[in-house]
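Researcher: Last one for today. Full complex below.
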Amino acid sequence: MFIGIDIGGTNIKGVLTNKGGEIFSSASIPTGKTADDIENGIVSLIDVMTDSKSLPKRSIKALGIGAAGAVDCKKGVIITSPNIRAWENYPLANRIERRVGIRVFLENDATVAVIGEWWMGQGRKYRNWIMLTLGTGVGGGAVIDNKLYTGQSGSSMEFGHMTIDYKGRKCKCGNIGCLEQYASASAIVNSARIALKKDRTSSIHKKIESDEARKGDTLAVKLVEEMSYFLGIGVANLVNIFNPEAVILGGGLSRDHRIIIPVVRRVVNERALPGLKDNVKYLAIKNEDKAPALGAAKIAMDSLQHF
Amino acid sequence: MFIGIDIGGTNIKGVLTNKGGEIFSSASIPTGKTADDIENGIVSLIDVMTDSKSLPKRSIKALGIGAAGAVDCKKGVIITSPNIRAWENYPLANRIERRVGIRVFLENDATVAVIGEWWMGQGRKYRNWIMLTLGTGVGGGAVIDNKLYTGQSGSSMEFGHMTIDYKGRKCKCGNIGCLEQYASASAIVNSARIALKKDRTSSIHKKIESDEARKGDTLAVKLVEEMSYFLGIGVANLVNIFNPEAVILGGGLSRDHRIIIPVVRRVVNERALPGLKDNVKYLAIKNEDKAPALGAAKIAMDSLQHF
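Model: Here's the assembly. Have a good evening.
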């Protein structure tokens, strides 16, 4: 048995699975704000899932964790994280390992989402595909010729920091005009703040989150469509570069895929080249709730074989 | 023996080579304007090179041709070409084959440049690298894990049509703000036209070409630097996506690499992410004059084995 943990901006999610990807137990807990909160959260998730199946911890062969930020996978260290300030050269894998007595492997959160979708989701059907994870930021990854591409240093692909407007909005990464300044949950919240100054009748005023789009709130739908337009520009670039069989959207925002995908498809058709854009499928991640945690478990399984 | 032909915007270049990549003969001829001009040019290049070594044509096992535009490699057909209007669904491989009695294989011009550099140039040293070919337009390709990546349809990577300014300059491809509108020979010529209206003292007034930069013409250097700034924005995007070991510049403009590379390196360092930009080497193609034709010959060699 293996456990996979996905540390998201809002919730930490866990799955208990086997080599066949069957899910025996799953659980979720709010992320919390401090490094200690998160560590306690992870430990209690592991307890909940093993207890529910009356499993002793030693029956868990390995634990995989996906975390946002720059990650040194070999050392199990979080180099920097956009969300948790205390996570600077933070040996998360080691710390959890000591608390639960299970071997821990750490990976970037976009990478675990790609691996999860590749293993048990839509990615199974394609040899060449890309994923964009739409959350607070925009991450991603590419499976090329049936292999996860990780570059020379093993990092995931940073699609969110692609410049789409070289004299545009400033990004906290230091660059100007990054896609994630236009096509992420944060971008929607920023646009909402601006829009709400003009429009005080919207229900979004009460609570800004993408759930609102599903409730048919006019402004929220408009904002998701606007962000989809910018996402389409980024995806058109990636279609011209990768000529993939499929573009799969993951991350929390992908739950609004019924709004997002038609806009993205239209913008790509307007902007990308014939021949490259012709046979691309646009899909949302199959199981947004569990795919990243499953991917983290899969990484733990595979990594264990190298030791 | 094999022959490789590279059809450029200005010249058609040919090399006579063997499986070891030794060049026994090379020749060059102006491209001409019509489809007939080009075909006659290719045939006379073949004649010149075989005659110079007193080789009968039947000793040439195969001929590879690199041409700008969308190419159907399997059929040997040019689908569309930016330079030659008559080349629309044009069976170039077949036509040349009938005239010279040698098996012909057709490829995209950026792809032959990548293959040439990979086979006999700087690309030999790296497993993960990208090339940008800087000519009238901007093409490119990526070698990923020691394999040329060609996408689902076998097309090369269209780095030139990456949007860097979504509300910027119109591109003839239909998109807005494509890199090649800012970072190509055509972009320099356009900027020069605008600049010359203001500055009538420059020697560039006489003749606009990148040779001028080497002569130290102030305006020309300024224009090449300006185009390098935009190129840097595009390269920063690609560094964030591919995290390559090396970025190699090819195409006619790459002869100005002493001006271009320092600017590109600076812009990438300003814009790309730490961890991804840290160990990237910036190089110019080793033999800009012959690498693409060599690559075309290599493609012919390799393709022959599949028949």
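Helices of chain B lie at 35-52, 92-100, 109-120, 185-198, 211-214, 218-242, 257-271, 291-304. Chain B has a mean pLDDT of 90.
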